[in-house]
Amino acid sequence: MKLVFIGSSLAIVWCMRMHRTVKRSYDRPLDTFRHYFLVAACFLLALLVHEKFTFQEIFWAFSIYLEAVAILPQLVLLQRSGNVDNLAGQYVFFLGAYRALYILNWIYRYFTEQHFSRWIACISGLVQTALYADFFYYYFISWKNNSKLQLPA
Known about the structure:
single chain, mainly alpha
């Protein structure tokens, strides 16, 4: 299953970089988010806040922290452009819904497992879901009014 995930991820990156139609849709002037600050901050946080000081645990914490904020560049780009096309809006909505449903999984596991102690994943998931809250609000407003999704600039 991991090979399918890695293969599909590589295919997506290839499409974004090489496919003519997809590559043309990239808007470089709007994409000014400095993602390397996010990566550095997540790595520093992983060095400071982890469950055990081991190589594997620090990189696990780093991946969890990075996953929590990985949607920020996309959300900032969508907000700068103002208008959100249907596919991008649905994609971001379902990413956020997936993470919100993951919270139900953690609640279930907390009450059914004796030693459920992945507090880093839980807090990071709550942060990630909170980052989607503004998008969810505008998504539901546009859905309720049957109008095109527009984010405030």
